[in-house]
Amino acid sequence: MSAAATTAHAPTERPSALLVYRDDGAIARALGAAVAPRLRRVPAILPALAAVVPLLVAIAISDARASNLAAGLVLAWLVIVGGLSHGASHRDRMAWAVPPTVRLAEYAALLWIAALDDVASQPAAFALLCALAFRAYDLVYRLRHQASTPAAWVNAISLGWEGRVILAFLLLVAGALPAGYFVWAAIVAAVFVGEATVSWMAHARGQRTVDYEDEEDEGQ
């Protein structure tokens, strides 16, 4: 086999899958790093559940008249405690449930924020969720098949789940919904789909090159 083919097949160091699937931003990573020495033996699912349960209770008992202050407190708890869970253990038997719990928290928060604004904001929230669902899909399958993650600049634009919750709340407070959600959804959809398309096309070309070189080696 040629040296190029050997290099192409060489194993690469894969980032921790569960941490990638969480899609944490800078705030969550910083919070997690700050408490990692103390929480490294605590199953991450525990603080993740502690973060999301108050949100779900608030959604169940509140209505459209809930104040921005009350919503802000619930969302602040979600961001802080959910961020701290980044530094907990992701190696126990229930670690697989952490990324879905984080997604539940994020999507529920974004929908709740839209509901607190007006019924007209709810379609905008679902448009945003479609773009974010594409990112979640891309994170999983790019890591699985390419052993890589989206470009750093794309991750920065995505803000991480906690950054997105914060931005959504700021749009609510500023009275920028539903337009803010629609514009946001359009921008991130274009970025996520465009960068993913380029990445997968490059990956496919690389695979064809390796297959061609393997066929040449077998024919010698």
Give short descriptive properties of this protein.
single chain, mainly alpha, 220 residues, 77% helix
Could you give a quick summary of the protein structure above?
77% of the residues lie in helices and 0% in strands.
What topology does this entry show?
Layout: H1 3-9, H2 17-22, H3 26-39, H4 45-61, H5 68-84, H6 98-117, H7 121-146, H8 152-158, H9 160-173, H10 179-219
Helix pairs in contact: 1-10, 3-5, 4-5, 4-6, 5-6, 5-9, 6-7, 6-9, 7-10, 8-9
Structure description:
- This protein is an all-alpha fold and 220 residues long.
- Helix 4 packs antiparallel against helix 5.
- The longest helix has 41 residues.
- It is flat, with a radius of gyration of 20 Å.
- The N terminus is likely disordered.
Number of helices: 10
Task: Quote the beta fraction.
Answer: under 5%
Mean pLDDT: 88
Radius of gyration: 20 Å
Number of strands: 0
Q: Which word captures the global form?
A: flat
What kind of oligomer do you see? single chain
N-to-C CA distance: 10 Å
Low-confidence stretches at least 5 residues in length (pLDDT < 50)? Answer: 1-14, 211-216
Alpha-beta content class: mainly alpha
Portion in helices: over 70%
